[in-house]
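Notes continue from the previous slide.

Worked example: a multi-chain complex. Inputs as given:
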Amino acid sequence: MNGLYKLSELDANLVEALSNRATELRRGATPARYEGLALGLLFLAPSLRTQASMQRAAGLLGLDLVQLTGSSMWKLETGDGVVMDSDAAEHVREAAPVLSSYVDALCVRSFARFEDLASDLADDVFQGFAQHSSVPVVSMESALWHPLQALADRATLDQLKVSTRAKLVLTWTWHPRSLPHAVANSTVCMAAQRGMDVVLACPKGWELHEEVIAQAKLLADASGGSFEITNDPGATKDADIVYAKSWCSLESWGDTAGESFKKLELRDWQVTPDSLSAGARFMHCLPVRRNVVVSDAVLDGPASLVQRQAENRLHAQTALLEHMLSGPAGCESPLQLPAEVGA
Amino acid sequence: MNGLYKLSELDANLVEALSNRATELRRGATPARYEGLALGLLFLAPSLRTQASMQRAAGLLGLDLVQLTGSSMWKLETGDGVVMDSDAAEHVREAAPVLSSYVDALCVRSFARFEDLASDLADDVFQGFAQHSSVPVVSMESALWHPLQALADRATLDQLKVSTRAKLVLTWTWHPRSLPHAVANSTVCMAAQRGMDVVLACPKGWELHEEVIAQAKLLADASGGSFEITNDPGATKDADIVYAKSWCSLESWGDTAGESFKKLELRDWQVTPDSLSAGARFMHCLPVRRNVVVSDAVLDGPASLVQRQAENRLHAQTALLEHMLSGPAGCESPLQLPAEVGA
Amino acid sequence: MNGLYKLSELDANLVEALSNRATELRRGATPARYEGLALGLLFLAPSLRTQASMQRAAGLLGLDLVQLTGSSMWKLETGDGVVMDSDAAEHVREAAPVLSSYVDALCVRSFARFEDLASDLADDVFQGFAQHSSVPVVSMESALWHPLQALADRATLDQLKVSTRAKLVLTWTWHPRSLPHAVANSTVCMAAQRGMDVVLACPKGWELHEEVIAQAKLLADASGGSFEITNDPGATKDADIVYAKSWCSLESWGDTAGESFKKLELRDWQVTPDSLSAGARFMHCLPVRRNVVVSDAVLDGPASLVQRQAENRLHAQTALLEHMLSGPAGCESPLQLPAEVGA
């Protein structure tokens, strides 16, 4: 396993095994120790859960930590052939191999910048690191994908024995800002790969990118699940899992004012107790804006899985790093692959 | 021991035992090791001593570190029922339990914000973490209290065998900015709990909050000490210990311009060699503005205890964390409680 | 060895031994372990390589880390006798001994501030820490010197068996900003101490400080090398090593607009394939502005040593800290001094 850009690039059996290992770790299994190896954490975007849980995962695995934040380093350039006479002082073509020479794996967080849709769709910062590093590069959220969140969410569903054929509705919600697509993209693909009946519910114009939709359909076909899109906010009402998230319209990329105007009438795209049927569970990646994205009553009630999702970030990441580093350190991976694969 | 908000919430015997343990550690005693446990450090305010000494204390105790600063995470909301459509992206109701799931104790630094006196008097950020965390929460300075400074100062007085009946004068000093009350509150209560004769010297209008004064009096009554207030800047002249600190007037909370005007004539509230009698010692929590709060001659002379106070931050914190973590880790606390308690 | 301000303050034999040890570490030698000791890293200026490689070096040596950045601490004053009623809240006279009481060695990064030439020439921030600390203080780049870069560059030249009499040309390059002299000063002195034929090539008015030039000449005299200055940009064409760097004119210190105007016609001071003879190698400390300081073709071609230089930062620093800490920790230094010294 050579880094991780999106969860769905992993074989379905490996995803299942990583989820199972995360659950074992949650129940107290002892992680492998990789003393003498080092993990690089590069945060070009803010973070609470990811920073804290990656630091802790490194501690549990005995890894040395190398930590950098965007504010304490040089502004990065990613373009090819650029004459660097503006504000970027360092090119990813230098930064990536240099950091690679100090660590055994490099984790990078870099959000969509909303300056240029093409750059964000190319995921230029993450891909720059992935391409120019000599060690595995793991996304801690890029412009398009958040694989560690997806793996934690998958472990959460598995731990609670949510049926693989349950219905998961990812519903768009109103939000005062224009947010990236990474979690939304990752959620539909994770659920489709798990075999679930996945519904994307959003206002017209807020559909996810066509390539993501195509991927989710392919994953659903392979797993025996399904994927469809609706513009009906009431779609949550017969869901087993309601996953809430806001994201910006592809039609208004980088145009915050324009999008704000377009969504003036959409404030009731909010998850409230009325949005959920009896027995339905609520998910969100956090941070979440209370009484904007979801009402206090849902978040503080028994339907909410958000704390378990966040806790599983630690276990999922520990499982992933443990597996990824198992080769170079000479340890065997502690993963138990499903029987049909392990045989 | 379930976290720490202010030093005086601890039994007087425990405070004494922690101070003694800090002194043992200063003399080279070996701290307990808590490998496999993790300490969270959350800095929502700047820091030199606290950051550095907490990092080192964690190292000495073998703890994994999880470190976050306000600038690299989301702006926090603390209010109940708030519609979060402004700039705060995360509520302490999520942040506290999430961080709790990654660490075994959580330390939080959050100054008074001077936006709203009621919020600061409620110490809303620290209390939000304390209320919503599932692990012990330790203050690394909140709006109202700085218990780790108070414990280090207590250890400093004990190490130097300053009489428990010595006279400690906490004197207000002029300062170009409006500063919080945390150290001033903590100093008078620490000294009153130690049994000292405590005098608060400040200009009229700069008295500490009436509830703090009431607490200091109660602590003095219980310990056999005393507490009084004077507006005479000459009160330092017969003190054994002169503790200098600036803080803002409760009457001008958040009104920097108003307070600046009110204190135009108060620049000679500064500690100089003339402020101290022979044999008196000078204390300050640092950072200190030279030749504004205290003159070079005092700070660089033999009366100054500021370096020992700062060094004791490390030992006091190591002692406190060692004791606090002694339960969950299965180790016994290395504290020797005073005889009348240990019997 | 009590700290490090500039590489040339070390005996030539010690520099050689440290370079050799760096190469051993690069080849897989096991560093000494200093468990129980702590290293302080204080970053008052941005950094990618230095931060990351110092964190990793500490991990390899088993050191506890205490890390502070300028943005999370108080603004520092360095002047003597100053009335601190402006924006600096803490004096280096307090900060240095306080941090010294938490760690066993303190590393400081503080660039030239371009406010006042005299302060920068006095290297007031670094010297403040060096003077007031009770533990060794190591420069991670000060206003005038970058000894860790110089040691890594020395190790790079030694690893590649570049002749000690090879010709090294340090060439000034155009750059959109006004940059400090630390790397330029360190490079000419490192190469002169190594015995190389050193040429400083720069436009008229961009010569390095006369004291640095005098030092480089003395070092060259002692080593059997040479040092000269030219204003000819073509001087690189018969070099074995072309080291590129931009720095500001001493005549325009702090006057960015003035310098920008003066260098309007100097944009062709850029290293391109035409600047290098066959077999010449290219060096730069990074970060580097592509197609401004040096063209892509050079940086991505076989002449470029920049990745090895950056990787050697880790090994050189590990060697230096390992040697410096060998006394207090009771371990012997793993250094093999050259025969004429070791005898």
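Summary box: The radius of gyration of chain A is 20 Å. Residues 306-324 of chain A form the longest helix (19 residues).
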